[in-house]
Amino acid sequence: MPLTAEKMIPVTEVLEPRARDSWTHTREGEHRGYIDSDRLRELWIHTGTACNLACPFCLEGSHPGDGRIPGMKLSDVEPFIHEALDMGVEQFSFTGGEPFVIRDFVNILDYASQHRPCFVLTNATDPLLKRRHKVLPLLDNPHPIHFRVSLDYPDAARHDVDRGEGSFDKALEGIRWLVDQGFKVSIARQSDPMEDPLQAENAFRGIFREWGIPEPLAFTAFPDLGTPGSDDGSPEITENCMEKYPTRESRAHFMCTYTRMLVKKNDQVRVFACTLVDDDPQYDLGGTLAESMDERIMLRHHRCFSCYRFGASCSAPT
Ligand code: SF4
């Protein structure tokens, strides 16, 4: 049964709201739900918020020249890659902005894929297309690279309204090139509240046929996650709500149990809880991966409700 706001109104232990810390307590004074981390399996690296596109719905608020999160350099991430390897990490994953806008990104990806499988979120438009000659040699690295390309809707005009004219065709050109070279590719699409997922994905497959792209590409559908600093009014998650996920196994789909994300703040690299919460400093868990895994993560951010209710996850096997 869907969990409604009404169902989450606390029935016990209502405390004086202002006497409580908003990190640990809801507006109504109940204890918040939380996640204790398990072990680091996937390390995300936020390459920076600069992007060649300026989509109004972007959960990162990215656009050309944006510096909310500065660009990563290889020298920034190298020590964390080695710390993660020492902790048994299984995958390195990258998000932006558009990673290929960042000058050092191909070097970072080259370095990471010497050590573990990699996963890259990209719009597969000009920044990737211009660097094809640099990306191709990465196929020979010891570990595979999986690209997840954003293709919002199976409708060029609707996709291009927000991403800019010609973006749909460029992304398809990027997808076709990646697939033709032998890289693994999947698609990040946007979900419509009332959609029939099979119908939506069949429409994509028809377009792939027209473009000569093999059809069995996997899809991940995302709800609207809001822009940075926004609050969509989602219900707050209390400790009682978490009774729905009582065991370690049942909580395993929350990315904060097994991932961390590196985010550059000014000149320092900080470790955040997951890929969805870089706009709230309370999810900054420290300057090393080891210390970040000891922190209890309170489910305060409105995007935590997407994890709670829909199992939203940015992760994918490589
Ligand atoms: S957004 Fe999801 S993965 Fe991130 S801290 Fe909240 S519950 Fe955990």
Automatic annotation (TrEMBL):
Q: Which cofactor does it need?
A: [4Fe-4S] cluster
- What is the organism field in this record? Marinobacter segnicrescens
Which UniProt keywords are given for this protein, alphabetically ordered? Iron, Iron-sulfur, Metal-binding, S-adenosyl-L-methionine
Q: Which Pfam families match?
A: Radical_SAM (PF04055)
Q: Where are the transmembrane segments?
A: none
Q: What is the lineage of its organism?
A: Bacteria, Pseudomonadati, Pseudomonadota, Gammaproteobacteria, Pseudomonadales
- Where does the Radical SAM core domain lie? 35-270
Report which superkingdom the organism of origin falls in: Bacteria
Q: Which GO terms describe its molecular function?
A: catalytic activity; iron-sulfur cluster binding; metal ion binding
Q: Which PROSITE patterns match?
A: RADICAL_SAM
Tell me yes or no: is Iron-sulfur among this UniProt entry's keywords. Answer: yes
- What name does the UniProt record give this protein? Radical SAM superfamily protein
List, alphabetically, the InterPro entries matched: Aldolase_TIM (IPR013785), Radical_SAM_PqqE_MftC-like (IPR050377), rSAM (IPR007197), rSAM_sf (IPR058240)
